[in-house]
Amino acid sequence: MKNIRMPGFVLEFMSKYIKGLKWNRLLFNKPIGYQIMKKIASLIVLVSVHLFLTAQSNPDSLYTLWQDSNQPDSIRVKAYHDYIYQGFLYTNPDSAIVLANQLIKYGDNKNFPKANGFAYSLQGLANFVQGNYTQAIEEGEKSLRIFEEIEDKKGIAESLNNIGNAYINSSNFDQALAYQEKSIIISEEIGYTEQIASSLNSVGNIYLEQGNYAKALDYYKRSVKIFEEIGDSFDWQ
To answer: Average per-residue pLDDT in the chain?
Structure first.
């Protein structure tokens, strides 16, 4: 587990930006437009990206852990998942899909289904990055079923969020909202605060795309509030 320091000025700027929009609307009756809301969503994404980049491990050390047969299955699988996620998912999604197949083989050979769940999750995300949203949903559903079978609530919450995001980009907003709301409920049950913030941001994106800027702003504010409550000290697992 790594302790990540969140730059306070990022959260402060986001909070003041949102509060400024609220007062601007109340005092001057100026509507909050799509482009402004997109800026808020982008700021929230920047926070997530900061957390991800700060928390990255050395790819060589991750691959070494994956190759070490003396390590428990859980350690090896998580290390290889992170190796693919950090090194290939966004820069070379085709390779991420191919590499994730090794996790499927490992899960089958070792009777360790969590590896399969990780693999399908990665393949779903890789398809999402490529704009293949139908395939992203199919792989996400495979991941979701596995995590449900092994009662891994963190994996369930993440899978629901991933599928919901693919539905957003497919303009299927009813389905997207249903999946995000389920992700929030499960994340709240286990205290998975960063996933709650992520899903709230996704719900904001749904309302943004539907032109409901007031609701979008409300969900963005709730997402930012969670980051503020986490503070500038963040546990990354």
So the answer is: 82
Element (H or E) spanning 192, and its range?
A: none
Q: Rounded distance, CA 134 to CA 47, Å?
A: 28
The pLDDT tens digits of the residues spanning 206-223 come to: 998 998 988 988 898 898
Task: Give the closest residue to 122 by CA, choosing from 93, 165, 149, 161.
Answer: 93
| Residue whose entry in the numeric block shows the structure tokens 């504010």 | 221
The contacts of residue 73 (CB under 8 Å, 6+ apart) are 110, 112, 114, 115
The Cα-based distances of 43 to 23, 47, 84, 121, 181 in angstroms read 19, 7, 26, 25, 22
**Which tokens belong to 8?**
């306070």
The pLDDT confidence band at residue 42, using thresholds 50, 70 and 90, is low
Q: What are the tokens at 140?
A: 């996400």
Q: Which two tokens stand for residue 177?
A: 């909202």
